[in-house]
Design goal:
Layout lengths: L7 E5 L7 H11 L3 E6 L1 H6 L2 H8 L3 E3 L5 H14 L4 E6 L5 H4 L9 H24 L3 E11 L11 H25 L2 E7 L5 H4 L4 H11 L7 H12 L10 E4 L14
Parallel strand pairs: 1-2, 1-4, 2-3, 4-5, 5-6, 6-7
Helix pairs in contact: 1-10, 4-6, 6-7
Bound molecules: 1,4-dihydronicotinamide adenine dinucleotide.
1,4-dihydronicotinamide adenine dinucleotide binds next to α1 and α8.
């Protein structure tokens, strides 16, 4: 439909063709956007971000989202590439070393928890702050991060990622308030269904959780492709008055307690 025609933006987190960010980059390009892709240098070595860059004719720039200097260099490069301000950013970044090492929540390692919070939540504040300080986003622009329902309700096994997502949503409201008031920029999170990606598959019991959510949600789990379409809509002008929100994209799961099928 070309709803992003003339728009430009940065997409974080496309590791492989299962990544939500990968689908979002394809959908944004399909809708007419120009894109810069970014991921960590390590992810670019082991993942396939560069292949996506070639497919979409998008520059791929390495940046660690926890490093303010990397984010500054990335935003400067994007502004040079786009010849000025741009319109959207997707933060599709998350990782918990405690989950990776199967350390239970009640026995958590606090150094690792600090890393979880830095990668999965503080990076969001750092990104917003760099974008704000560099006045990188055009008025009416849209910045989106990905969350999960464990920010609001208990999902056993989600461990310190639940705390990270709660902080991510809080930063969305608090920074979004300033970005909206001062610059007319929208800031939202999308709370996505369980999705079979590298990050998703790392959660203990993911297969069962995926099946449970799929049964409970009246529309079933939302796919990564459907999430990409929702992200594109949030980047577009059709959502120009939507900000400071955590938007459930989960087939209705978040409003359910029980269904005949699950019983
Ligand atoms: P993914 O593993 O494909 O993407 C995660 C990305 O984060 C990877 O590209 C990885 O390289 C990047 N990353 C990790 N540390 C980084 C750092 N320091 N700097 C920059 N990038 C870094 O998995 P997925 O599922 O596409 O994850 C994207 C987002 O969606 C994450 O925020 C995740 O928590 C969220 N989400 C995922 C769900 C799922 O079930 N897969 C459900 C709800 C939300």
């Amino acid at each position: 439909m070309g709803i992003l025609t003339g728009k430009k933006g940065i997409i974080f987190g496309a590791l492989n063709d299962k990544s939500i960010a990968w689908k979002a980059a394809e959908a944004a390009a399909r809708e007419g956007a120009e894109i810069v892709l970014t991921n960590t240098a390590a992810a670019m070595r082991f993942g396939t971000t560069k292949i996506l860059g070639e497919q979409l004719q998008a520059p791929v720039i390495a940046a660690d989202a926890t490093s303010v200097s990397d984010l500054e260099a990335l935003v400067e490069s994007a502004m040079a590439h786009f010849s000025g301000q741009f319109d959207f950013v997707l933060h599709s970044v998350g990782m918990s070393p405690n989950i990776r090492k199967s350390i239970p929540y009640e026995n958590i390692n606090y150094d690792l928890m600090g890393k979880t919070l830095d990668i999965s939540a503080l990076s969001w504040h750092k990104l917003l702050q760099v974008l704000y300080q560099k006045d990188a986003i055009r008025k009416g622009g849209s910045v989106v991060a990905l969350s999960y329902i464990a920010a609001d309700r208990v999902v056993s096994g989600y461990s310190d990622m639940a705390d990270a997502k709660a902080l991510l949503q809080s930063i969305t409201r608090n920074f979004g308030h300033i970005f909206g008031k001062e610059r007319g920029v929208r800031v939202n999170t999308i709370s996505q269904s369980p999705t079979m990606t590298s990050a998703g598959s790392g959660i203990a019991g993911m297969d069962k959780m995926f099946d449970f959510a799929n049964k409970l949600a009246p529309l079933g789990n939302a796919s990564a492709e459907a999430c990409a379409d929702y992200i594109v809509m949030l980047f577009s002008d059709y959502t120009r008055s939507v900000t400071l929100q955590n938007l459930y994209h989960d087939g209705g799961f978040s409003s359910m307690i029980v269904s005949a099928e699950v019983l």
